[in-house]
Specification:
alpha/beta; 31 helices; 9% strand; elongated
Length: 905
Amino acid sequence: MQELIARIGSPSWSYLASILLSTFLVSREEQIAAPSSPRDGEDITITDGRLKGNDLKLGTMMGVFVPCLQNIMGIIYYIRFSWIVGMAGIGESLLLVAFCGLCTFLTGISLSAIATNGAMKGGGPYYLIGRALGPEVGVSIGLCFFLGNAVAGALYVLGAVETFLKAVPAAGIFRETITKVNGTVTPEPIQSPSSHDLQIYGIVVTILLCFIVFGGVKMINRVAPAFLIPVLFSLFCIFVGGFLAGTDKPSAGITGLSITSFKENWSPDYQTTNNAGIPDPDGKSHWNFNALVGLFFPAVTGIMAGSNRSASLKDTQRSIPVGTLAATLTTTALYIISVFFFGALATREKLLTDRLLTATVAWPFPAVVYIGIILSTLGAALQSLTGAPRLLAAIANDDILPILNYFKVADGNEPYIATMFTSFICIGCVIIGNLDLITPTITMFFLLCYAGVNLSCFLLDLLDAPSWRPRWKFHHWSLSLLGASLCIVIMFLISWSFTVVSLALASLMYYYVSIKGKAGDWGDGFKSAYFQLALRSLRSLGANQVHPKNWYPIPLVFCRPWGKLPENVPCHPKLADFANCMKKKGRGMSIFVSILDGDYHELAEDAKTACKQLSTYIDYKRCEGVAEIVVAPNMSEGFRGIVQTMGLGNLKPNIVVMRYPEIWRRENLTEIPATFVDIINDCIIANKAVVIVKGLDEWPNEYQRQYGTIDLYWIVRDGGLMLLLSQLLLTKESFESSKIQVFCIAEEDSDAEGLKADVKKFLYDLRMQAEVIVVTMKSWDVQAEGGSPSDDSLEAFSGARKRIADYLVDMKEAAQRDGTPLMADGKPVVVNEQQVEKFLYTTLKLNSTILKYSRMAAVVLVSLPPPPVNHPSYFYMEYMDLLVENVQRLLIVRGYRREVVTLFT
């Protein structure tokens, strides 16, 4: 670094260069030390920016191509493929290979795109699907893929055992089955191993493999590529033997490569067979193209073997696409060539009866193929018994599903419990003993996984988020959609019943994970889809006024209480309950807001912590909404900023909900009146409706049923908000037994009947059931006699009038002392004492009426009087205190210049 600085020249430039180089080196060290996984504690070992020397890193050939080739080229090719050609004919066999090969090829393209879009950790396809479609989908499909791998181990074990019993018939414990062909006993009876022999030998082999897995997993991984050598050599011997069969005539029915056999075997000849696959008119298994798809599809699976080894690859983003697609194309080409080869090699009867035709024609002797089959199937079984437990352990280590905690393993340890669980599943499938019954089950699980990979790529490619930048460019969302569609089509072609069962199983897993699982934020594609959908919906809503039919309450819940709450309770519990009461069947969104007094630079971290705490609390209270924390010099300034900026377009909050400050006089909180009036005035200017809850501590929760009435004192036209709130309350269990009463104020007795009839007609047109009561008050004048106020109301009235008079005297004395006009709340005011008396009398009359008719009501709704102009905020709080005096539970409502209910359909 010093040499570079010396070359730069000037001292100032040298100083700048030293800073830049130091910053670069520090940032580079931080980048090297930072884990690249979205989860903490993943399997990453880094020392000074270099991998540890004992980490074995593989290239494309040995890391991806060879494992994929080994897993794809398996038992189906050796002991079932010639039989498939005999049953389906050359023509439909070509269609079968092309159909299944296209499905895996498209899946390989999708896999290549996702695998090259960032670092890939343990878990193989589960990791890809989970990070693309979310933890619920990832875990459900990952568990299905685990079951598929576990059952595939049983498939390979049974294949090896059947091959062994075919090669050494004397090893059979039970009598072998003699079968018939086309209703006649053949001159040489066709024998197949007993199912009991398959079960016994299969269990023994599975147990031995389990002991090998427990004792030497590292050695298995090192020698696994060697299992491919017998496979390749046996393939060479099969093709050489086929070309020499025309002269050697190794068995009856082997014609050699003959054009006559080719023509005779072109068309299909589907027959009924016994459980061993030998044609038998009395057999229970009837074959068609759909059934052959289920039988053959496991022969093209195995394309995930490379992605499962992603942690051992030198260059994941290069090796997985090249190796996977090369193995897929190579094996597909081999299958197509083999269709022509087997179709021209033997008669139809020989293809259908000789299940080991590959060994019959092999050069120089059949034992080569027997050894190749046994070694390849045992190697594949070992891969399944080592790969499946690690997949289960990877799912458990993500800590999404608590029930899988038993299978967790620490980094570098062997998943012994998961291996034992996999072994039990494998042994259970071996006991079934029928290869042709197991393969459709495996097919369903693998197809579910492939469909998940394709859907993941489809979603990511269609959304095209900024983070979607795969290095593999040869992909398109239409190809992924076609691949996913092919997977679903193949599932239904094989068996609609198996498909329904597998989809139901995956759905149950998804539901269980969504209910019991822990949240895992992996930045999945669904979150991006929700974001795009929200943007599109927001644009479609536009900025125009929402029609009353489409109006939803979006309450802005002011969490900061007028008083104190426990430190771990960021919002009054009953305020959250009331916010839920404003939603019909839980639909809608609430915005919970709290304000921190202070400087934003100093309290930024505190605001983040408070926001997280508030968000957790509203989730705990099961409120659908979001939490926001605002830092401001004081509450008034903070609320003023909130009411102007909160929300987007027509998703801005339209109702401000807060608690009534009942404690302001009791605790002598002199700053509350000015703040309270400022908030109401800000709502009026911003055209926001206001709902103030008095008696919040007594508000019922969802389990406390109310049997009183819901009384509305409908004084001011508010767009129907008060009526709508009463209807929303009725939809909640706590208020569903209540009835609505609407109280209307008439100044003359002659107006009462007409007003009552008009209001009833209006409510009928609004589809609202309510009893209408008209209360007559001749005048709102000071001199008018307004009924008979109760003693409690008169006492409250006298106290309010005295306090206002004392406050006015103090204001006048302060103004005379300072030589200034009357001042209140930091601004000049003009006090009309007669108008103050009028407000006090009006509030007294309304309070007396509420206590007279609604003392036993479940909840009372009354219109909120706006703060009078030029009146001190202290006066307004006295008016409000007089209004709510002795009313247990009261909602003070102010609508806005917008209709929220409509008469029309």
